[in-house]
Protein 1
Amino acid sequence: MLGIVVVCGVAGLIYNLPPIHDPLARRVDSLRVGIKRYFNPPEEVLFVPQEQVDAIVQGTLTAMASSATPAPVLTETPVPLPSLTPTSIPGEILLSGIRHEYQQFNNCAPTNLSMVLSYWGWQGSQYDTREYLRPNFAVDNKNVNPFEIVDYIEKNTEFDAL
């Protein structure tokens, strides 16, 4: 048993040597993501909002038809309505309530996620999100897929994500 532990420790040390780690890291990460996608494939999640859109449109049309009143009879000359002018887009918008965090090296997704969640009152930090999004942080696992962010939000917060 001790021999297995020693062999695993030596293999871990050898793997982390730059001449060995650099060419293999991408392949190991690809294998890890492949295994994760095999058990939790993002392609099986279908987003088809058309059913919801149809239900909303039908409900709106039904409500409009039931509340329709006959047009009033005009007795005098109608006053022309002013033309509608579009509201101009503001030069900037300031959202208050976002807690700023300085990003740790190569930790942009966990940091940005914790800052976005802070807008809705979440109290965690980039270190909380990193534990889930980048569990192999010491092995330089920089990539975070969008489905991993959605998965984190749905499993670790009271919020929903799409």
Protein 2
Amino acid sequence: MTSKEFEEYLKSIGGLENGFYSDRPPIVKNPCSCDDGWLQLIHDLIEELLAAGWDKQIKQIKEKFGGLRFYIGAATSEVHKIITKYEVLSYEICEDCGEKGELRRDCGWKGSRWYKTMCDKHYQELKEKLK
């Protein structure tokens, strides 16, 4: 899924609500601080959350330590279990392309520890860039 397709999806559901400022318009631009490979995963997460009665309030969507983070306000335990399920799934999906991936712990410059979940292809491309 591309960023443009994801934004079309957000528009189709009426956008997401700003979890910090209720007086702001719905979020219909891509609010994710991660690469496009996870957009389908986030789309599926949102769909499952909506089916569980989630109020669409979002605080932040990002990558941290190689995994997806999806921050919301108060919600039912069912909603939080769904989020946890998708955060765990993100460690098996390449953040760049959405294909099968794994957590890589050596993606930083000159040996620094930077975590990213990537497929073999994108991992090798990154390692070549870092040489």
